[in-house]
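Hi F.,

I've been meaning to write this up properly since the lab meeting, where we talked about keeping a consistent format for the predictions we share between groups. The idea is simple: the sequence comes first, exactly as it goes in, then the structure tokens exactly as they come out, then a line or two of notes. No screenshots and no reformatting. I'm using this chain as the first example so we have something concrete to point to.
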Amino acid sequence: QVQLQESGGDSVQAGGSLRLSCAASTYTYNYCMGWFRQAPGKERETIAIRYPSNGPTEYHDSVKGRFTMSQDSAKTRLYLEMNLLKAEDTAVYYCAARTDGPCGFDSTKFRYWGQGTQVTVSS
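Output, unedited:
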């Protein structure tokens, strides 16, 4: 079982930056890890995934070039660096882990989730 805890959410002005963290209870090197968000009244959106075993990272088009997903050397903490924030980035942000099956953007395949952290961007 993997426990995840996000932090770093805040209220910022458009054009600003934030760095979200996700602390995992275990080594996640071999897991598919992802960042997701859900805005009020909208479906959950997959914004970035990292393939297992130092695999590549892929981004949703809406955040490509602005957001960067990374991991610490101990492979127990995930980060999401968010730059050039826009009002439409306002959402609750979640990290999640998929421990079996192929890595991909389907959020329903991720088994372990954090509780989320709120990001609010004002224009």
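Notes:
The chain has a mean pLDDT of 96.
The radius of gyration is 13 Å.

If this format works for you, I'll send the rest the same way.

G.
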